Amino acid sequence: MSREVTVRVPLDESMDLLQRPARACIGFTGGGAPRIEPVRLRYEDGRYLIGIESGAEAPAPSSEVVLVVDDGVLFFELRAVYLRGVARPVLSPPQEQLRWFELEPSRVSSWNYGRMRWKHDSD
Amino acid sequence: MILTDALVQHLLERAMVARMATVSRSGRPHVNPNYFVVDDSRLWLGTTTGTLAARNVAVNPAVQLLFEIEEDPTDSRLMRITGTAAIRTEPDLLKEYKRRDVRKYFRSLRGLLTSLRHLHRVFLTSKYLSTSDPANRHCVIEVEPIRIEILG
Fold first, then answer.
1. Nearest CB partner across the interface for A74, out of B27, B31, B114
2. Does residue B1 belong to any structural domain of this protein?
3. Fewest beta carbons less than 10 Å away: which of A104, A116, B40, B61?
4. DSSP state of A11
5. Which structural domain range is residue B23 located in?
6. How far apart are CA A56 and CA A30, in angstroms?
7. pTM higher than 0.90
8. B80 with B64: CB under 8 angstroms?
9. Which string of DSSP letters, residue by residue, matches B106-122?
10. What pLDDT is stored for residue B131 in this prediction?
11. Could you state, in chain order, the average pLDDT of each consecutive group of 10 residues for chain A (123 residues)?
């Protein structure tokens, strides 16, 4: 059996990306077509709060959303956190001028090309 | 606004990562950061046919891409491109994509230094990027822009 190479890393290794996100965006489906919007991410006590510009298109309530936070531009610098889940509007917006949603993730993964390695059973 | 506009070209020359949103056959969204190069009036993103992005494009060619100006941190503008995409696997096109990709991402002092720092991962990289599986071949996602927006 051939060994695999992986760039997956535990989320713990990517916490700085969530706490100080350089670039964050969400993808969702609108009218059957893909939509992408830049967002402000606030990661607070394990909650993923997403701020969308008030004039921008937002995902439909309780619809599926993908959040990607990424950093780096060159091959071995690229790393990201990927979350898939449902976005629900937050009733008490923590900041004005943005509409806030909370992402309840059903899947979280993170990868880092600078940590490329042989895959082990523990990965 | 079209891809060959001076402002669009200016921003694309300073953007390094294309975040591409796609939708699956069942309507589920996906976003992935990709390397990209510009080919006249189209964008080329490198990937393999087995990735979720490529599989989504194969069944639904609608895409939306978001660009930040990573090479100029003082420029807070973003650019969003809505387009239609196609999977291209012709050997000549893949070769040309690879040539431009290497020129853009590796042939700079920073690119070379980063590669040198990770020299011990070169073999792993070739293994990681190799695609012996016929169902997962190298490909280029070619995007034909329909609408270009400057945000911020």
1. B114
2. no
3. B40
4. G
5. 6-151
6. 12
7. yes
8. yes
9. TSSHHHHHHHHHTGGGH
10. 67
11. 82 93 94 95 93 92 94 90 95 74 96 89 69
B138's tokens: 């190298």
The ipTM value here is 0.91
CATH number of the domain that residue B14 is part of: 2.30.110.10
Domain assignment present for A2: no
* CA–CA separation, B102 and B100 (whole Å): 5
Highest-scoring range by mean pLDDT, A91-95, B32-36, B127-131: B32-36
Say if A11 falls within a structural domain.
no
Q: How many domains does one find in chain A?
A: 1
Q: In the prediction, which pLDDT does B78 show?
A: 96
Q: Quick check: helix, strand or coil at residue A65? A: strand
The answer to whether position B56 is within a domain reads yes
Q: Which of B12, B13, B19 to probe by mutation at the A interface, max A CB count within 10 Å? A: B19
**Backbone φ and ψ of A46, nearest 5°:** 80, 0
Rounded alpha-carbon distances, angstroms, from residue A95 to A16, A101, B101: 22, 11, 40
Å between B92 CA and nearest CA of chain A: 23
The answer to whether the beta carbons of residues B38 and B20 sit under 8 Å apart is no
Q: Using the beta-carbon criterion (under 8 Å), do B28 and A26 form an inter-chain contact?
A: no
- Total domains in the fold of chain B: 1
Check: CB of residue A7 under 8 Å from CB of residue A81.
Answer: no
Q: Does residue A4 lie in a domain region?
A: no
Is B70 within the bounds of a domain? yes
List of residues 6+ apart from A97 with CB closer than 8 A:
A53, A54
What is the per-residue pLDDT across B78-97, written as a single tens digit (0 to 9) for each? 999 999 999 999 999 999 99
Q: Do A75 and B117 touch (CB under 8 A)?
A: no
Of A13, A4, A79, A68, residue with least CA distance to B114: A79
Q: Per the structure block, which two tokens stand in for B97?
A: 């994509």
